[in-house]
Amino acid sequence: MNTQATPTAIADETLAQPTAAVIDGKAASARLLEEVTAEVASLAQQGVIPGLAVVLVGEDPASQVYVRNKLKRTVECGMQSFEHILPSETREAELLALVARLNADADVHGILVQLPLPAHIQEDAVLEAIDPAKDVDGFHRMNVGALVQGADALAPCTPTGCMRLLRDTFAERGGDLSGLHAVIIGRSNIVGKPMASLLLAANCSVTQLHSRSQNPAELCRQADIVVAAVGRPNMIGADWIKPGAVVIDVGINRIAQSAEQSPTGKARTRLVGDVNFAAVSKIAGAITPVPGGVGPMTIACLLANTLTAARRQSA
Ligand SMILES: Nc1nc(=O)c2c([nH]1)NC[C@@H]1CN(c3ccc(C(=O)N[C@@H](CCC(=O)O)C(=O)O)cc3)C=[N+]21
């Protein structure tokens, strides 16, 4: 902002504008996918085509959209994709039998079972049945333990994507994450907890906030880095953010959109994050948008994990 030549002349205008840099997750994911594509091509010359199996149980429309996007990107990268869409009444035993077949299939290097599963299926039984070497989600206990210990493991895709965005953002400013205070809002197994392990490995001081935390906004205001992963639309307001902090918004919330707001003029839904973007972008140093932030990075990291798994299995 101090690069502005005539600050006095534009003061009123800049007050109304977002001051934060908007972190472009689409561009970052395109760069990562380009790297993955090149490496898939070189692995293919050795006769190995990385294969990703995606298993979806039930007909949840949002899940179907993610699965379709994953398949599209998988093929674009030159990988093989194996799609298994099972009815919502599928028995746990049938799903476990499918996982066992995928574990034994040498053409399948990565297995993703889309969560959440229907209530009658025990999620951990399924996750623990996946061969840890093929667990590209990083949800198996073996990989969770390795991550906590700082060992080389397949790490969950969304937190890995957040780390890439953070590293790029600080690298652009000529720095790194070491010694910075990171506040994570949320303690889920798929985002909050692995995020803490990754930030710690990057030498951050890590604070984890959750639904029982006292004075969360006050604690969050001490953060250089904020990672919001709660699943509550627009929960994080400007009063949670220290000026200049880097804000990563993991939330993907579908909320009703009135007909007037909709580009098509029809009442529909729109995606918003856990962070109130309009308010926070006036105070943060950098912020990810929703959509176009963390989401695309998740898919790119899934394919990067699949490449890693394929390399290890064919070494
Ligand atoms: N075993 C498992 N692993 C997962 O990684 C997993 C899962 N289950 N269950 C569901 C969630 C959700 N998820 C998303 C990935 C990409 C976008 C994404 O690319 N979103 C786009 C927009 C998509 C849209 O417009 O709907 C964006 O944020 O720009 C979103 C959501 C992975 N998940």
Automatic annotation (TrEMBL):
Reactions performed catalytically: (6R)-5,10-methylene-5,6,7,8-tetrahydrofolate + NADP(+) = (6R)-5,10-methenyltetrahydrofolate + NADPH; (6R)-5,10-methenyltetrahydrofolate + H2O = (6R)-10-formyltetrahydrofolate + H(+)
Organism from which the protein derives: Cobetia marina
NCBIfam families attached here? PRK14186.1, PRK14188.1
Say what the protein does: Catalyzes the oxidation of 5,10-methylenetetrahydrofolate to 5,10-methenyltetrahydrofolate and then the hydrolysis of 5,10-methenyltetrahydrofolate to 10-formyltetrahydrofolate.
Q: Which CDD domains match?
A: NAD_bind_m-THF_DH_Cyclohyd
Subunit composition and interactions: Homodimer.
Pfam families under this entry? THF_DHG_CYH (PF00763), THF_DHG_CYH_C (PF02882)
* Pathway(s) served: One-carbon metabolism; tetrahydrofolate interconversion
Q: Where does NADP(+) bind?
A: G186, R187, S188, I252
Q: What is its EC number?
A: 1.5.1.5, 3.5.4.9
The gene designation is folD
> Would you tell me the protein name for this molecule?
Bifunctional protein FolD
Identify its protein family: Belongs to the tetrahydrofolate dehydrogenase/cyclohydrolase family.
